Amino acid sequence: MTDLQLQIISLPHQCGVYQFYDKLDKVIYVGKAINLKKRVNSYFTKTHDNNKTRMMVSRIRRISTIVVETELDALLLENNLIKKYQPRYNVMLKDDKTYPWLCIKKERFPRVFYTRKKINDGSEYYGPYPSFKTVRTLMDLINELYPLRNCNYNLSAEKIEQKNYKVCLEYHIGNCYGPCESKIDEQIYNDNIKAIRQIMKGNFRDSIEKFKAQMSQYADSLDFEKAQLIKEKIESLENYQERSMIVHPTIHNLDVYSILSDPEFAYVNYLQVNHGAIVRSHTIEIKKKLDEDDAKLLAMMVIELRQRFDSDSTNIIASHAFKFDEETRVKVPIKGDKKKLIDLSLRNAKYFRIERFKQIKIVNPERHTNRIMQQMKKDLRLEIEPRHIECFDNSNTQGTNPVSACVVFRDGKPSKNEYRLFNIKTVSGPDDFASMEEVIFRRYKRLLSENSSLPDLIIVDGGKGQLSACLKSLESLNLRRKITAIGIAKRLEEIFFEEDPLPLYLDKKSETLKIIQQARDEAHRFGLNHHRSKRSKTSWTSKLDLVPGIGIKTKTLLLREFKSLKRLEQATESELQNLLGKQRGAKIFIELGKIGSLSEP
Fold first, then answer.
1. How far is CA 240 from the centre of its chain?
2. Burial class (CB in 10 A: 0-12, 13-18, 19+), 149
3. By CB count within 10 A, which of 212, 394, 414, 569 is most buried?
4. What is the number of other CB atoms lying within 10 angstroms of the CB of residue 271?
5. In the chain, which stretches have pLDDT less than 50?
6. Contact 320, 234 (CB under 8 A)
7. E strand or H helix at 283
8. Residue 381 CB: number of other CB atoms within 10 A?
9. How many whole angstroms separate alpha carbon 526 and alpha carbon 407?
10. Contacts for 141 with CB less than 8 Å, ≥ 6 apart
C-alpha cells in the first residue's frame, strides 16, 4: 500500500479544506468539502471526463487537510489558500474582489455600509460574508431598527453649528435620524452604533427583544402586515450564523501553536495568521525520548516551525505557556477570539493524530496495539497492561433458561476460540447477582485447576451489584486484588471499581471505552444467541411429549383434530376413543388426567 493510499484511508469524515501536492511538494490544488474523506476519495475512484482533472490526479503525491467547524469556514479558508499559493489547477483569485465586509466607518456619526475593500483607516470591519444576500439581510435589519445616515458629509461640530447641511429625503421618509441638523443626540447615536456592533458580532438578544416589542405594538394596533415583516426580520436574525474565525479583521500577523501528547508521541499544530486570515496549517509528530514536559516540547518545536516557515511574527498564542525571546510575546488565551484559534489548532492536531493512528494500525499493528494497551492501563489506573481481558454477561427470560457468556479479548481483539458458555445450575429465578457469582467461581476455579493463565482484567456487564458478586467469588478463590475487576453500567456507561464509591466516566470517544463496550456487546451477543437457542428448543417441547403412548404421529393427529391444547384438555373419553380407538383412547385419557393442565406457560 502506497503512502498516498494510506493518507486517503485515514482522512477524517469532517468539514474542512484539502490541499494536493506534487512530487516537488508544491500545492497544485486547494478544495473544500463537507466530508473530507468522501470528497478526496472521489478523485481516485471516479472516472473523470475532464482531461485536466485526470492530469491533476496523476500528479498528486501528498495530501494535507485542515479541519474547520463550518462550511463557511471551509469556504473562506479555501479562498485564503488559493490566493496565497495560486495553485495550478485552481481558478485564479485576486485580493481586491472577493467576499464582502460590513464596515463601521471611523468618523463622527459613523456610517455603516458594505464593501469589498478594507482600508487601514481605523474603521471596524466585520466578516467576510459568503454572499451579498447575507450582507443585504443584515443591512436591512440594521436600517430597520437603527436608521443611520448614508451620506458622506463631514459632520463635524463646527459645520453642524454653521448649518452647512439640511436634512434630505431620507430623513423625511424615516430612513435617517437627521444628525446633520442635530435632530439626534450624538450619545444616543453612538449607543445605536454599539447595538449594531453587537449584531455584527452575532449577539442579537437585545435587538431581537426590541423587534419583538415592535412586532407586538403593530399587532396590537392591528397592523398585521408590518408585524409580519418584523417577524420575518426576527427569523432572519435567529437563523444568522456567527462570523468566521478563518478571516478576522482584528487579528494580524499571529502565530498559533498547540500540542497534544501521548505517552510516546506528541503532536504540535501551527496556524499562521497573516493580515487577519489563516493562510497555513501544519502538524508534526514528535517521538518522545524521556518524560518531557509538554510546554518544553512546544517551545522546542516553535523554534523549528518558525525557521521552517520563515515566520518573524512577534505575537504568539499557545495552548501551553513557555518562555521565548524578549521581542516575542507568548500568551495563553482563556477566552475570546484568540481562544477559538487555539481550539481550532487543537482540533487539527487531534485529527492529525487520528490519521496517524489509522495509518499505524495498517503498517505497524504491533505499535498500534502497544499504544492502546498503554492507554488502557493509564485510563483504568491498572498496574499492568490489560493484554488478556475476560467479560461476562447473563441472559434469562423471567428466570427461565438462564445462561451466561464469557468472551476473551487478547491485545484488544476478540479471541473467539476461547469464548465459553455456561448454563446456570445453582440459581432459581431471575437472580442476576447470584448467577454472576456462580459463573465467576466456576470459570476461575477451573482455570486454577488446569494451571491456565488468568486474565489481567475482568469486566462484568452491570453496576455495583454485579461487580460485588464477581468480587465475592474471587475472594473465595483467593484471587481478589490479584485480578482487577470492573463493572460497566449501560445507561451512562459508568465504570465501577472495587471499593470506589464513585464511578469513572471515560470520554465517549476514547479507545479504552470503545474496547470495553465492544467486549460488553460481544458478551451480550454471544450469550443472547445461546439463550435464544436454548429457549427455542424448550418452547417446542410440549407436555404431550411426556404422555406415554403419544408419538409424533399421534401428537399431530390430536392437534389437528382439537386445534389447541386447551380444547384437548376438555376432550371427553369417548371423543378420544372415536379418534384413536377404544383401548388406546381410554389409556391416553387416563394419562392426560395425571399430567394436569397442558396449556399453562
1. 23
2. buried
3. 394
4. 22
5. 95-96, 241-242, 399, 539-541, 601
6. no
7. strand 277-287
8. 10
9. 8
10. 199, 207, 233, 236, 237
Cα separation, 335 vs 339, in Å, equals 5
The answer to pTM > 0.70 is no
* 590 DSSP β-pair partners: none
Q: Looking at the DSSP assignment, which residues form a beta bridge with residue 283?
A: 269
C-alpha grid cell, residue 40: 478526496
Q: Do 218 and 226 touch, CB atoms closer than 8 A? A: yes
Give the residue among 391, 425, 431, 389 at the shortest CA–CA distance from 409.
Answer: 389
Q: What is the distance between the alpha carbons of residues 167 and 387, in angstroms, rounded to a whole number?
A: 83
User: For residue 238, how many other CB atoms are within 10 A of its CB?
Assistant: 9
Rg of the chain in Å (alpha carbons): 37
- Name the grid cell of 302: 516553535
Please give the single-letter amino acid code of residue 523. Answer: A
Q: What residues contact 376, with CB distance under 8 A and at least 6 apart?
A: 382, 385, 386, 412, 511, 512, 515
What's the pLDDT tens digit per position in 545-599?
Answer: 666 777 777 877 887 888 777 787 788 888 888 888 888 888 878 877 766 555 5
599 within 8 A of 566, measured Cβ to Cβ:
yes
The span from the CA of 334 to the CA of 544, in Å, is: 77
Grid look-up 410440549 returns: 542
480-511 residue pLDDT tens:
889 999 999 887 889 999 878 888 999 888 89
Helix axes 582-595, 573-580, angle to 10 degrees: 130
| Phi/psi of residue 274, nearest 5 degrees | -120, 130
Render the burial of 113-124: b for 16+ CB within 10 Å, e for the rest: ebeeebeeeebb
DSSP E strands in 379-483: the ranges are 388-397, 400-410, 413-414, 420-423, 457-461
Q: Give 267's Cβ-side CA count (13 Å radius).
A: 18
Q: Tell me how far apart the alpha carbons of residues 248 and 277 are, in angstroms, rounded to a whole number.
A: 6
Spatial contact of 192 and 146, defined as CB atoms under 8 Å apart: yes
- Which residue is listed with cell 494580524? 252
What is the CA 62 to chain-centroid distance, rounded? 27
Which grid coordinates are listed for 550? 403419544
Tell me the three cell numbers of residue 270.
Answer: 501551527
How many other β-carbons are positioned within 10 Å of the β-carbon of residue 418? 13
**Cα torsion 240, 242, 246, 249: sign:** positive
Contacts for 91 with CB less than 8 Å, ≥ 6 apart: 82
Phi then psi dihedrals of residue 118, to 5 deg = -105, 130
- At 141, list the grid cell: 435589519
Angle at alpha carbon of residue 72, lines to 71 and 75, rounded to 5° = 85
Question: What whole-number distance in Å separates Cα of residue 168 and Cα of residue 431?
Answer: 87
The grid coordinates of residue 28 equal 497544485
